[in-house]
């Protein structure tokens, strides 16, 4: 079997993410990817079974990178406020440094690939987050809420700030750059809303 050329694999990964983020999955084609990478379609099929396998593998790899960044320095037994702040810092640092990742993961999440990719990367992440939330509820540091409600309150404000940051503007095309001060100010409001 032919060995993997790591430079080609990285180029394929980056171009896949770029093309999916820019044009969506429905407009992504293996032929366009091969052309953009300056390689033959046959070369892609050395590494991937088909288009679905390619998208799935790239998404799982990027999802694992994001998960590792999110869980770095995170202790699920921390107090609710400390642990959630660590999550906000880790997520914002990774996604601000990797804007392509943010756009790509969002497209994957909203597609038919979302469930399959999520299942492949979720166990370590979900176990840590479940333990964190359950501990916070038990210690009466967090209002008991359905997971969807808690997640929406805890993270939607962060992801909206990151979206504005990546766009470089907020409402009415007003220039926007996410600062540490604004991140903390928003976080403090979120924590206040989630505490009993």
From TrEMBL:
Write down a Pfam family by its short name.
TetR_N
**Could you confirm whether the keyword DNA damage appears in this record?**
no
Which ranges of the sequence are annotated as binding DNA? 29-48
InterPro entries documented for this protein: Homeodomain-like_sf, HTH_TetR
Keywords (A to Z) from UniProt:
DNA-binding
Any idea where the HTH tetR-type domain is? 6-66
Q: Does the keyword DNA-binding apply?
A: yes
Q: Which GO terms describe its molecular function?
A: DNA binding
- Name recorded for this polypeptide: TetR/AcrR family transcriptional regulator
């Amino acid at each position: 079997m032919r060995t993997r050329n790591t430079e080609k694999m990285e180029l394929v990964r980056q171009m896949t993410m770029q093309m999916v983020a820019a044009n969506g999955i429905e407009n992504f084609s293996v032929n366009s990817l091969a052309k953009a990478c300056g390689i033959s379609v046959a070369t892609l099929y050395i590494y991937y079974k088909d288009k679905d396998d390619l998208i799935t593998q790239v998404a799982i790899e990027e999802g694992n990178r994001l998960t590792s960044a999110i869980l770095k320095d995170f202790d699920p037994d921390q107090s609710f406020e400390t642990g959630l702040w660590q999550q906000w810092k880790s997520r914002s640092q990774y996604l601000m440094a990797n804007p392509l990742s943010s756009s790509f993961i969002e497209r994957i999440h909203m597609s038919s690939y979302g469930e399959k990719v999520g299942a492949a990367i979720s166990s370590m992440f979900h176990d840590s987050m479940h333990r964190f939330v359950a501990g916070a509820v038990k210690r009466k540091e967090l209002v008991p809420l359905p997971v969807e409600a808690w997640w929406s309150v805890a993270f939607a404000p962060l992801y909206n700030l990151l979206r504005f940051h990546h766009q470089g503007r907020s409402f009415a095309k007003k220039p926007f750059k996410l600062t540490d001060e604004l991140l903390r100010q928003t976080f403090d409001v979120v924590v206040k809303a989630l505490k009993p």
